[in-house]
Amino acid sequence: MAAPELRINEGIRVPAVRLIGPNNEQLGVVPTQRALAHAQDLGYDLVEIAPNSTPPVARILDFGKYRYAEQQKAKEAKKRQRSVTWKEIRITPKIDEHDIETKIKSASKFLDEGDKLKVTVRFRGRELAHPDRGRVLLLQVADRLKDHGIVERMPLLEGRSMIMVMNPVRRDAQGAPVPPTAASAPAPAAAAPATAPNAAAPKPAPAPIAAAPKLAPAPSAAAPKLAAPAPAPKPTTAPAPVRAATAAPPSASPRKRTN
Fold first, then answer.
1. What is the pLDDT of residues 123-155, one digit of tens each?
2. How many domains are there within the chain?
3. What is the domain extent for residue 61?
4. Domain boundary residue, one of 79, 100, 129
């Protein structure tokens, strides 16, 4: 590990170092002996953390804690590293459907476990005269395994075998598309209620339309009232001859007798 290889305290042989304090403060370029004395006064160690710099960088710290922290970092990095293992399935151009289903199940299991997969088609005898059959078969296998892996190397003929390499699909990349589909599903449902306000909007519209006809009959009703005085001349003309007929009796003056 890198921590034990660092030079500390009297092991630092350079005349001057760029000193960093215990709280990461920059103390500038100081002589090595002065930096070591300052570190001892504070109860820490002087550790050369960047020997290839000019001048080298030294830091005042507790070397025991620093080495333990570096070891823990190395362990965590080692846990994240995973050795790549290869798995292989072998098929023939004349494989049955049931057999290829069994091969597909095994291949999907390998890819789900994070292993790289090599699919090999072996040609026997005169089968090598028709390499296209093997290529088509491999592409069909890749299509069936598209949810578990991706093709790293397309089918390639090597001697009497045709080989295709597939890599597993990452779990984080596979889970990323799921939230958009789940979020997009409620979108149409949310759009459906939005139509409710649009359906309620036409309800107020009939009110002004119904009020308009009510105002229209008012002027039409007022027109016949103005036409009513037209029949008035009829009674004036009709009584005129009647009055002339009644005027006849006073003209009968012979009935009067004179004494």
1. 998 888 989 999 999 999 999 999 999 999 999
2. 2
3. 3-79
4. 79
